[in-house]
Write a structure and sequence with these properties.
Layout (H helix, E strand, L loop, with lengths): L3 H14 L33 H17 L4 H5 L3 E10 H4 L1 E9 L9 E8 L8 E6 L27 E2 L2 E2 L13 H6 L3 E6 H4 L11 H4 L10 H16 L10 E6 L1 H12 L5 E5 L17 H7 L22 H6 L6 E6 L7 H17 L4 H4 E6 L7 H14 L7
Helix pairs in contact: 8-9
The chain binds alpha-D-glucopyranuronic acid (GCU).
The site of alpha-D-glucopyranuronic acid has 8 residues, from helix 10.
Length: 409
């Protein structure tokens, strides 16, 4: 029989190691947010002409202290695209489905990215497109057996029928509620997605199969998994921006939760994305770190040590020392349209902190002479942490406005 005391001690050590969190508004500390419109040297930023310099300062802080620096050589890589599948009668003839392999032949360690692109068949010009990473493989977004089943590492998840870290046939279509294809296509939009695990499997050792292995950065400010996933979104954008199948000037970038954090970082670092959407992105996404409500910096670094730069750990229980807060990440999207969404029961992601961050990003839009009321949208849905058809209908309404499309009848 195994001794009981060491077991208890082990449990206690694990519990002690997991940083304490709360969802009690009365425990939110007093804090002062850094001003997006005051330079590091204290000079106020007063005109649009002064913004690029201030923007670069803010971006550099996020790179150095939070997401990590993506090596310029990785950014410079251009994918070679090869269409591996073209199904013109997808969704009962309403759409064309393409599978496109993006490879980097000169960088043998770079992973292959498998992009799925679905375009409406009834369209007079190349349609605008929503791009977003998925959590468990392209084959989860729709049950059509013609979609290639991912063979990559997957987190074991009974709901998604992934066993022994592999997808099974039963996992086809397990994420359809998150990708309401009929709705999106009927509104005239295309959809592009790829599995985040193609870029880097989501576990602390995933770096070995990641693009990060091809560009190692040993210092504390080296890129984390979120920056790697963002890199993958930019590589998908490299393809979409020159694809005749879609309008590359109207690419809306969207992500849920950890992939919402990723969409924000990709939108901040790559200004080709015309519209950026954060769905329940929470800590390290749209939520203000200084509120320390729900998931905190200490907790996220503890649970997901691979997501951020190691330098982010110096702000564990020390948020007020951060040179920036997440409202400035949102300000980096300006003057491009931005939509932030929360869910009422998703206290872990701090809905109030997400909303406040958006409010505090608005001065950047105003400085640039843009109507922040039109360009920044917030909605909160009743219910749990998720992305649903209701969320999508809000995103489609926003996209109609931003891309000057008449709303559907
Ligand atoms: C965890 C994590 C969050 C993350 C979420 C998700 O809850 O703590 O930071 O957003 O997973 O990605 O679903």
């Amino acid at each position: 029989m195994k001794p009981i005391i060491p077991l208890l001690l082990t449990a206690a050590t694990v519990l002690a190691a997991s940083p304490v969190t709360h969802t009690d508004e009365s425990k939110v500390p007093a804090y002062t947010l850094p001003d997006p419109l005051v330079s590091d040297n204290g000079t106020p930023v007063k005109s649009p002409a002064e913004w690029p310099k201030r923007r670069a300062e803010i971006l550099a802080h996020f790179e150095k202290h939070i997401y990590g620096i993506t090596p310029p050589a990785a950014i410079a890589l251009k994918p070679v695209a090869r269409e591996t599948q073209n199904i013109p009668d997808f969704l009962a003839g309403k759409a064309t489905l393409r599978e496109i392999e993006l490879t980097f032949p000169d960088t043998p360690k770079a992973p292959t990215l498998n992009l799925l692109l679905i375009t409406p068949n009834k369209t007079s010009s190349p349609p605008p497109v929503f791009l977003g990473l998925n959590f468990r493989g392209n084959h989860t977004i729709h049950p059509d057996p013609r979609i290639t089943l991912s063979t990559r590492w997957m987190e074991n998840d009974p709901k998604a029928a992934t066993i022994n870290h592999r997808a099974t046939d039963a996992s086809r279509g397990t994420a359809t509620s998150r990708w309401p294809l009929d709705l999106i296509l009927s509104r005239g939009y295309a959809i592009a997605t790829l599995y985040c695990g193609d870029i880097e499997p989501d576990h602390p050792d995933g770096i070995k199969q990641s693009i990060r292995a091809a560009f190692p950065t040993p210092d504390d400010s080296g890129w984390g998994a979120i920056a790697a996933w963002s890199w993958g979104l930019s590589k998908a954008m490299d393809h979409l921006s020159s694809s005749p199948a879609v309008n590359g000037k109207q690419v809306a970038l969207l992500g849920h939760s950890r992939l919402g954090k990723t969409a924000l970082w990709a939108g901040a670092t790559d200004e080709r994305f015309a519209f950026v959407i954060s769905n329940n992105s929470g800590c390290g996404g749209a939520a203000l770190s200084r509120r320390a409500f729900g998931e905190t910096v200490a907790r996220i670094n503890h649970s997901f040590p691979h997501w951020f730069a190691r330098s982010f750990r110096q702000y564990n229980d020390n948020e007020s020392a951060l040179p920036v807060d997440q409202h400035q990440l949102l300000a980096l999207i300006a003057p491009r349209p931005l939509h932030v969404a929360s869910a009422t029961q998703d206290l872990w992601a701090d809905p109030k902190g997400e909303r406040l961050a958006l409010d505090h990003a608005k001065p950047a839009y105003q400085l640039l002479g843009k109507p922040s009321a039109l360009l920044t949208t917030y909605h909160i849905r009743e219910g749990a942490h998720d992305i649903t058809a209701e969320d999508w209908s809000h995103y489609l309404d926003s996209a109609d406005r931003h891309f000057s499309r008449s709303p559907s009848p």
